[in-house]
Write a structure and sequence with these properties.
This protein is mainly β. The longest helix is centred in the last third of the chain and has 8 residues. Bound molecules: thymidine-5'-diphosphate.
């Protein structure tokens, strides 16, 4: 499938769920219930030094939910035409990044955890790591 036509406007911030309790909250993400793809892989970024940036690539097919499981950070989305920055700072809020979007993550707060729910297993061939190549693919 050619995902090159997806834009930043296809990426949405989703309030996933929150089971509130005075003793603490639970957020549940469950395949076929409140996520629009099947989760095949979960990974998380942590111990990001102040001032560091992550990401800086796009995926041909992979889609993701990105969640600030702890702390906060910014996600910069870029479809080659439009750029958009989304700040994440709540564990019940996910950013749905559709395939074919350039993304970078920065402004990590100290101790923050970026949890990623991914639609595919790790595959280096699905990455576009060169921005010029990405923009050419979007044309
Ligand atoms: P990368 O996705 O480029 O990290 P980020 O976008 O957060 O900056 O991955 C960094 C390295 O980790 C790269 O060498 C590939 C490896 N990696 C895996 O082996 N499996 C994975 O699921 C992920 C996400 C990365």
């Amino acid at each position: 499938m050619n995902q090159s036509k997806n834009t930043v406007f296809d990426c949405r911030v989703v309030d996933v769920s929150k089971i509130h309790n005075n003793a603490g909250n639970i957020t549940v993400v469950e395949n076929n219930t409140n996520i629009p793809f099947n989760v095949k892989r979960i990974y998380y970024l942590y111990d990001v030094p102040g001032g560091e940036s992550r990401g800086g690539h796009a995926h041909y097919e992979l889609e993701q939910y990105i969640v600030a499981a702890s702390g906060s950070f910014d996600v910069l989305l870029d479809d080659g035409t439009t750029k958009k920055t989304i700040s994440l700072n709540r564990p019940n809020i996910a950013l749905h990044i559709v395939p074919g979007l350039w993304r970078a993550l920065d402004n990590f707060s100290s101790g923050s955890i970026c949890m990623v729910l991914a639609s595919e297993e790790y595959n280096e061939n699905d990455y576009i790591r060169n921005y010029e190549k990405y923009v050419a693919w979007k044309l």
